[in-house]
Amino acid sequence: MAKRFDVKRLSPEERIELAEELWDSLVEEDIVLTPEQLEELERRRARLERDGPRGRPWRDVLGEIEKRGA
Q1: How distant, in Å, are the alpha carbons of 3, 15, 43 from that of 6?
Q2: Domain count within the chain
Q3: pLDDT truncated to tens, each residue of the chain (70 aa)?
């Protein structure tokens, strides 16, 4: 049996970078969604088309928090 690489030997920053590299290496065809996930994705796409984008830029939210003194 091949010896496994111990990821805990990496720093947290190195582990995050590795996770990002692994994620970025995937292509759309690699990701298989369940029927429930596909249904949710379609529901969210339909809401986006109907209502437009929701949410606010994080800088705006952070600015409000800073104004409150939090």
Answers
A1: 9, 11, 40
A2: 1
A3: 677 889 999 999 999 999 999 999 999 999 999 999 999 999 999 999 999 988 899 999 999 999 998 5
Give the pair of three-digit tokens for residue 24: 């970025």
φ, ψ of residue 27 to 5 degrees: the values are: -110, 160
> Contact, 64 vs 57, CB < 8 A?
no
60 inside domain:
yes
C-alpha 8, offset from chain centre = 22
Phi, psi of 57 (to 5 degrees): -60, 140
